[in-house]
Design goal:
CATH class: Mainly Beta
CATH topology: Methylamine Dehydrogenase, Chain H
Shape: globular
Strand order of the largest sheet: 1-27-28-29-30
Number of strands: 33
Distance between the termini: 34 Å
Number of domains: 1
Amino acid sequence: MDRRRFLFTLTAGDWPQFLGPARDGSAQEAGWGPGEFRVAWKKAVGAGFAGPVVSQGKLIIFHRIGGEEIVEAWDARSAARLWAIPSPTRYRDDFGFDEGPRAAATVSGGRVFTQGAAGMLEALDFATGKRLWSVATMEKYGVAKNFFGAAGSPVVHENLVLLNVGGRERAGIVAFDAATGREVWRATNDEASYSTGTIAPWNGKPHAFFLTRAGLVAVEVGTGKVVQQVRWRSRSSASVNAATPLVVGDEIFLSASYGTGATVLKMAGPVWKPLWASDDSLSNHYSTSVVNGGYLYGFHGRQEEGQAFRCVEWKTGKVMWSEEGFGAGTVTLVNGKFLLTAREDGELVWASANPRKWEVLSRGRTLGGTVRSYPAVANGRVYLRNERELTAVVSSSFALP
């Protein structure tokens, strides 16, 4: 089963949600390849870590200006604003970090779904921006404020919107009707993590896989039936589960920092047993790894202590190579090559997906400031933001539209 088609009916070049069409950090872009990076346009944005998404020629950006979280639709080619819908917010960050939204929007079925930093879940009409419904999840489900606010993007499958709410009375994971916002089912008492869930076929049915604050939860999408729970978190109260689980066939990769480590589990039997588990292979702090040809590629280690970019064998956890001192960043697989944001400073790097050696193909800096948000890759462009502006970048190997 093609997982991209399983998840979405796609327009060519769409990047409609966090981590792309299949929520696995990969894209197929005709004509893309290594070359000099060129800026097509730049535009000011407000606060936040919510990365851009692109669908049907529209770019959706979710950011904060003053006391409002704003969802905006731009023409992806020209950056002309098409509509903007503000919502009041009083979110304050206890640590003095950015107070904008953390979670990228999700576009599906003619709607835009967002979750703000204070847990406000909203649905907007994709064509006009009209607000269709909203749910104040933290208030409704009694969610305690987390360290850095709500950060998981809405996960959409057919007529359901799934969210790791982290509420009381078995409202850890909640499914909402996509058309009305009505609650359909709820499951587990797990608190919310900063990770975004994913959906994949397993045993012939669509299942949702969430890395909550406690660990892995696998549920049937249609019913909310919990089929598996695996504890995977640090013993420290300051633990961070932020990377999205990666599903390949009947195996799943989990990774977290703060001494938790990484594992690949075989999804079979009453107990899902690890093929391997290690804190020395590929422990992701906030960035999700990608899979290519039986190998994992991603950032290992704590962000504040400096990270290494690594290649790790999926089946064994063996480190094939490690590029030390690379700094924190994100990785996207584009046409079988890597596009990395490096050192959180706006540097873009094209690299070879080669398990035998680390090989840079080209690199360049197109955006300053602090870059932590994931980019969107769509229609020959990379859309990348920092804390004050968003830029559209093309590679010289792709003709500038």
